[in-house]
Structure formats: C-alpha cells, structure tokens
Write the structure tokens for this entry.
Amino acid sequence: MVIVDCDCHNYWTDAEVLLPYLDGYWKDYFVRGEKTGPTGSFPHGHRAWFHPEGFKRADINPETQHEHYTIMKEKHLDRYNIDYAILTGDEALEASTLANPHYAHALVKAYNEWMINEWMPLDKRFKGSLIISPTDPHGAAEEIRRIGGHPDIVQVLASHGAQRPYGDPFYHPIYEACAEMGLPFAIHLGGQGGVNSTPIGAGPTTYFWETHALLPQTAMTHVASMIAHGVFEKWPDLYFVVIECGVAWVPSLMWRLDANFKALRKETPWLKMLPSEYCARNVRFTTQPLEQPANNQHLWSTLEAMDGKNTLMFASDYPHWDYDSVDSLHIPPEWRENILGGNALKVYKRLGASHAALAAE
C-alpha cells in the first residue's frame, strides 16, 4: 500500500534563512523590517488568534533545521512507512496577509528557493508545494512557470484566507499557469490576519478553539466560488485540493448548491453540470482534521455521500497539535488503499507518473 502524506510541514528556526534567496531590494526591506517586528516571524506576526499552548506537538521542539528533519524522519516518516511527504511550509502561507503584494511575492519566491535547495534534497520522499501569494496573481503565475517544471514540485499552494473568493476572475491567471504546468491548485487553512478578510461569516471570534472549529466556512465559500465562476469549465483537468478544512460539510453544501442551481441555472449559463458533479470531478479534500463523532457510522455515512473513497486524501498535518497518524485514521477499512495513497497518485500526476516508473523498474 502506497502512503502519501498530503500535508507535512517543514519549518525553519528563524526567518533569516530566507535572506540568501531574497533579491537585494527586498533583502534590505526584510532586514530593516525585522528590526521592528518579532524575531523569526514570517511575516512579522499577522495572526489574530494564537494557540494557547503552541501550534506544534509538545514532544517536537527542534532547534535547528537538521534536527527538525531528524525528528520528522524518526517520529513520522519512518515510523509510519510514509512513501511520499508533500511539504506544505507553514509561515510562508501568511505572506498573503501582507498589504504589499510585491513584498509578499518576493517572500514566497525566496521560500520556494529555500525549500528546493535546503529541504527537498534531505529525503527522496519529499515532494514540494510551490507556495504563491494570490494577492499578486500575475506574479504568482510567473512563479508557477518559473519553477513549476521542477520534477519534485507537485502542486501550487495558497492560503485559504483570501481577500476575495478563489473563483473570482482576478485569480484566473493562476489557474491558467497551473493548467499549463500540469499542477493542481491547493489551499491550506491559514492566512487569517493582516489585510485578509475575516474567515468567520458573522464577524471575528474570540477564542482559538471556536475559531478553529468554524474555519471551514471559508473553504465552503471557495469551493462554491470555483464552481460558480466556471473555473472547471475553463480548465476541466484542474484539480482543486482543500487542505485541513474538515470534510463533513461537503455533502450538505453540494445538496444546497444543486438545488439552487437547478432553479436559477440561467444566472451562470456557462455551467454544463451540477455543482456536485464538478465537485466530484475536480475537488479533493484531505482527511486532517477528520470530524470525530461519537458514532463512527455517522461520519462514514457522510463520507459515503461525498464519495469519500475517491475524493479524500490522507494528511497528517505533522507536526501540529492536532496531528493524525496513519494508524488513527477512522475511515472504512476497505477505503484505506485509496485514501492513504491511491487518490493522491491520481491528483498529483507528476508524482503518480514517477511512482509508476519506479514500480516498473
């Protein structure tokens, strides 16, 4: 059984690791800005809600990049026989919260170079997420074309915190570049501060635990927007991956969208299928954090309603506080082969092709 972890976070110990990869002007901008911002932040601490006990697991406290990799290898990659781990950064996703889109673009570009040069060579199991700041769609498209052909880059990744829903034509240059390079577009929970709009519909919440439980609201908006604006009609082979936003909401959202679309389809005449059909064909969801009802059968019925056997992909969210191991995944046993790796090999086509080539040797 192939195991693909679709959400494995690689960290740095200080944001200054990016300095060698920043152009001169932005390097000066970064260094001078760091003198007034909290040390090691990226960029300068924009999160509105802080975890009361820290975002990482209590037993994982590396002091250097090498130590972080060594612990990850021991406690996650080797322990659970992970075949491939897709690196999803962490603080780099917060670049989209900056008001200056040019600076945000420079930071994620530096992060991508740092990841390619200093993280991916550490382990042949590592596959990269090309992180963009969607506040600059044309700069993001340029970055996708610049390094999107790297054989170990498997997806384009942005924060799920955004200034407007992702189906908006403002973002379409990003999807055009993704389609050109054959890469899925993924969003990861995060980027909820700075200039980004609040991720909670009724207004800002107060406590981290209530906020964390409500963050799927934003993912719902993005999924509906991607479908309604016809992104999957323009680019029918594009996969949209939703990472760390829960999944139990998917069937109810599709039921509502289908019902409204049937009654009001003339509003979006470019759509040729039901919203649920686009979702089944083009949208994929990661398991972490998978909802945990008292009765697992309640969850399994919900997952069946969204064809979870074929639309879910395993994610651990290593090394965060709500980390899920391979062994703790509460899904129907007969679905494990698909969810643990089979579905990911189809979505991440470059990874699937290289894996098939290795298997054939």
